[in-house]
Amino acid sequence: QVQLVESGGGLVQAGGSLTLSCAASGGTFSNYALGWFRQAPGQEREFLAGIGRTGLRTYNIDSVKGRFIISRDNAKNTVYLQMNNLKPGDTAVYYCATTATLRMVPVSREGGYDYWGQGTQVTVSS
User: What is the mean pLDDT of the chain?
Assistant: First the structure.
C-alpha cells in the first residue's frame, strides 16, 4: 500500500509560480512512475506530467506549454511539480499519482496509475 500526500497548493496571482510536492510512504518509491493530474470544476481529470524510474519525463504539451516541470527526489520519496507563469485557467485541484510496480518510463494514462493523493487546490486569480 502506497500513500501520497500533496502540499503546496494555494492562491496565487496570474503570472506567479507555485511548486507542488507529493510525499509518498510505503512501497519502493524509486521504482515507480509518478504523475501529476488536475481536475477543474465540471471537467474531467487531465494528465499534466509524468516521470519514470529513469527520470525520463513526458508532458501534456497542450496544457503545460513549457510552463510546468516535474521532478523527483528518491531520497525524500517526493515528486514535485514546479508551475510557472500561472493563468486563471490553471485553477483546479491537483493530484499526484504513482504506479505500484516498476516502470522505467513515464505513464500518461490515468488508468496506468495505482495510487492517488487526496488533491491540493490551486487557485489563480486574474
Answer: 96
Cβ-proximal residues to 73 (8 Å cutoff; 6+ apart), any chain: 79, 80
Per-residue pLDDT tens over the stretch 13-35: 999 999 999 999 998 999 999 99
Q: Is 33 helix (H, G, I), strand (E, B) or coil?
A: coil
Rounded Cα distance, 100 and 113, in Å:
8
How far the first Cα of the chain sits from its last, in Å, is 40
Cα separations (Å) of 88 from 41, 99, 120, 124? 13, 30, 16, 5
- In the block, residue with C-alpha cell 513515464: 106
Counting Cα atoms < 13 Å in the Cβ hemisphere of 6 gives 27
> Which of 15-19, 61-65, 122-126 has the least mean pLDDT?
61-65
